[in-house]
Design goal:
By secondary structure, the chain is of the alpha+beta class. 26% of the residues lie in helices and 21% in strands. The protein is globular, with a radius of gyration of 24 Å. The structure holds sulfoacetic acid and manganese (II) ion.
Length: 607
């Protein structure tokens, strides 16, 4: 058989045999017009952003340097959980919380979808590294994509191009492993066919082959479906790596907290998508003397250090934050970061003078172009920005980034916070009784759904460790891995686990806790608990502060509301028990006994 000649396929700036073979194989299947090896240079960024402007995908923003607005296809705005699969060899390794299909069957289906799917387009090969490039074992990947939008987004979100490729082959010729991640928007162009601004397909698949450490994505250009270094690699595939190798890949922000006495603490926190991880990661504390610096806003890889403590690394290079609601009050540091430019904005609204706008950023101008590319005025009944519209901006230019953000050794974690969006039941903050109890809190975490995934918004669902859509294997095995992680460690060196809820509401549906910068008061209490300095009351659900145990000097917020935010309401908790039971039944036989025990103990304590 004669090999097809596709321009660029052999112009590979690497000798890595497995990579070369895979690129050729994909090119022969997808039949692009040409293959381009992405180098990550500024020239390349300029060339691709110019191309995206010309194609109508991007609008250059006059008011923000080197920044662009994009509006997606209205049917391609969020992660598609129904179309996301974990194709483990054995269905039992996938579990009840993921979709499964036999890997060979899925490959057969998708191979036919990929056949010729890049016709009329350029196939880009993006070598990337999740986490610092100078790590002893750099976590490498290659995304093949036919989307320029993906290439420029990956430049912000990952360390990519030549600097990543340089780590694929060691000085002695050893070829390193990498995660192959294949992406096609699934919109081939026939000769003479005009393109659209946001090409994608009605058929979407986001697929993981965990044993092979392989990702195949088809049909969507949107963030979590298409930027495969993020959720697909750094959570779903990495969680499987972590299970096999004894570490944790978690949906957590990482922040650095410095006390007035100059003591430094690192905190990781897991909240579901669109529940304020980015805001907490960049928090401006309202308590004098305390400082917060940012390490990451979405993903933490946590491994044991030589000293027995857990160290966290942020695998990402940028922030992919929810735009609506972001302003100088809720997240001043995100506002300052995007003001520097070099950012992409997807599905926000566009002002007439070439700036971006979204609900919550301030007064609406007289006229906007909405995310649906329609005229919008303050009288319009539809939202100008999609609720899951996003800014994509480099960590590098965030003023509050901690110097350790790029440290390959990571940072030692003192506290882990789990949290969700719950109008009732869950108090502002609860300290767990032990790692096992904290794992129970994480495993039973619940939250109202948000616009970050396609589907109904505002429905309470269990979202264990905020990882429901991201656990790459059986949730019961994942809980077991958490329990065993605790058992394998010196308990005095483990982070303390807390459960928070910034979203509890009062009788008038008002938020009981002012949130945002005031959340520093909860961080302070947690640190003081770790130091043995702050008081708490032992309740059936764990240790909870009284209003006097929190530093509330100068707090914006009503005292009665704050008391209500802290309340442990036994009746509300009793109503929660059947929901937890139902959830545990869904997990089935693989639910670790210690979690059943925790549940029985909670029932007992509630009486
Ligand atoms: O679209 S992403 O998956 O990257 C963002 C999120 O839902 O957390
Ligand atoms: Mn996320």
């Amino acid at each position: 058989m004669t090999a097809v000649t596709i321009p660029g396929v052999d112009q590979a700036p690497t000798t890595h045999q497995r990579l070369l073979a895979w690129v050729r194989e994909v090119a022969e299947l997808t039949v692009p017009d040409q293959v381009v090896w992405v180098d990550g240079s500024e020239e390349e960024w300029t060339r691709l952003t110019d191309k995206l402007v010309e194609a109508g995908t991007f609008t250059r923003l006059d008011k923000k340097p080197n920044s662009f607005y994009a509006a997606s296809d209205p049917n391609d705005v969020a992660r598609v959980e129904e179309r996301t699969y974990i194709c483990s060899q054995d269905e039992a390794d996938c579990g009840p919380t993921n979709n499964w299909m036999d890997p060979a069957e899925m490959k057969a289906v998708m191979t036919e979808l990929y056949r010729g799917s890049m016709r009329g387009r350029t196939m880009y090969v993006i070598p990337f590294c999740m986490g610092p490039l100078d790590a002893e074992n750099p976590m490498l990947g290659v995304e093949i994509t036919d989307s320029e939008y993906v290439v420029v987004s990956m430049k912000i979100m990952t360390r990519m191009g030549t600097k990543a490729l340089n780590r694929f082959v060691d000085a002695d010729g050893t070829e390193r492993d990498f995660v192959p991640a294949l992406h096609s928007i699934g919109a081939p162009l026939e000769d003479g066919q005009a393109d659209v601004a946001w090409p994608c397909s009605d058929t979407k698949y986001i697929v993981h082959f965990p044993e092979e450490r392989l990702i195949w994505s088809f049909g969507s250009g949107y963030g979590g479906n298409a930027l495969l270094g993020k959720k697909c690699y750094s959570l779903r595939i990495a969680s499987v790596m972590g299970r096999d190798e004894g570490w944790l890949a978690e949906h957590m922000l990482i922040l650095k907290l410095t006390s007035p006495e100059n003591k430094v603490y690192f905190v990781a926190a897991a909240f579901p998508s669109a529940c304020g991880k980015t805001n907490l990661a960049m928090l401006d504390p309202t308590i004098p003397g305390w400082k917060v610096e940012t390490i990451g806003d979405d993903i933490a890889w946590m491994r044991f250090g030589k000293d027995g403590r857990i160290y966290a690394v942020n695998p990402e290079n940028g922030f992919f934050g929810v735009a609506p609601g972001t302003d100088f009050h809720t997240n001043p540091n995100a506002m300052k970061t995007i003001a520097k430019g070099n950012s992409l904005f997807t599905n926000v609204a566009l002002t007439d003078d070439g700036d971006i706008w979204w609900e919550g950023i301030g007064d609406a101008p007289e006229h906007l172009t909405s995310w649906k590319k329609q005229d919008w005025t303050p009288e319009s009944t539809e939202k100008a920005a999609h609720p899951n519209s996003r800014y994509c901006t480099p960590i590098e230019q965030c003023d509050t980034k901690a110097p350790e953000w790029d440290d390959p050794n990571g940072v030692p974690i003192s506290a882990i916070f789990f949290g969700g969006r719950r109008a009732t039941t869950i108090p502002l903050v609860t300290e767990s009784r032990s790692w096992q109890h904290g794992t129970f809190m994480g495993a039973t975490l619940s939250s109202e759904t948000t616009a970050a995934a396609v589907g109904q918004v505002g429905v309470v669902r269990r979202d264990p460790m905020a990882m429901l859509p991201f656990i790459g294997y059986h949730a019961g095995d994942y809980f077991k891995h958490w329990i065993e992680t605790g058992k394998s460690a010196d308990a005095t060196k483990l982070p303390k686990i807390f459960y928070v809820n910034w979203f509890r509401r009062g009788d008038e549906k008002q938020f009981l806790w002012p949130g945002f910068g005031e959340n520093s008061r909860v961080l302070k209490w947690a640190i003081e608990r770790i130091e043995g300095k702050a008081a708490a009351v032992e309740t059936p659900i764990g240790y909870v502060p009284t209003i006097d145990d929190l530093d509330l000097e100068g707090v914006e917020g009503d005292r009665a509301d704050i008391e209500a935010a802290l309340k442990v309401d036994v009746d509300e908790w009793k109503a929660e028990l059947p929901l937890i039971e139902e959830w545990f039944d869904k997990i089935g036989d693989k639910l670790p006994t210690p979690l059943r025990d925790e549940f029985e103990a909670l029932k007992q304590r509630l009486g």
